[in-house]
Amino acid sequence: xxxxxxxxxxxxxxxxxxxPGGFWxxxxxxxAGQAINAQSYGDYNAFVKCNAVGLFASLATILLLTSATxxxxxxxxxxLMLIMWVSVFSIAFSFFYGLRLxxxxxxxxxxxVILLSCMGLIAIVLVLHTMIxxxxxxxxxxxxxxxxxxx
Length: 151
Known about the structure:
By secondary structure, this protein is mainly alpha-helical.
């Protein structure tokens, strides 16, 4: 989990330093150093937001994994998995918006259908994974309650 978090943090950091479309090199078309797509496309804001969520979710995962008490509690492990899902989903959406920024207009509809259907499959896996995690959490809490009643 640590390796994946570090890779996601690296990916989002690099995507911020080198956004889709690049930067203006001179002041003729826009401000030098400003992202080219920031002025002309609405998807750029969504790209930046998804990228930021991915970065901070992966950083939160790294910080939680480096604390010594994280591994001891199943609830915190489930929370870590949830943060990882948020991080992975935000990277997927960031990729989607980045592709929309650089793809030709004829490809946009096709890309949207393909990527949203993939995201739908990932969402189904997330729901199943959450149901399994909640069942395990219920068993763990039941065991804790049984131990307390016996004591």
